[in-house]
User: What shape does this take?
Amino acid sequence: MAGQLAANPIFGWVVNSGGAGIAGVTVNLMNSSGTVIGMATTDATGFYYFADTTTSGLTPGTNCSLNATIPNGYSSSTPAAQTFTWSANSVVENFILN
Assistant: This one.
């Protein structure tokens, strides 16, 4: 159909060390200067999703990163942050909380 754009979400899962999803975790999308430009919250399965990356000001070639906030009961995230260069394609990034 004319006028439709290709999907280009940023998404992934936040799970515990046993692989179970963790609900209610905030995942931050940040630009290269560390400013939060988007936030998503995980659902009951640990899934998070940034559907409309254009409203976050991302343009191809933008360096950005993701991190998961550490909720009570956990002490760290593996990895602590995920960096990537936005290319207007889907990005899948997962976090394990320990």
In short: The chain has a mean pLDDT of 90. The chain has one domain: 10-93.
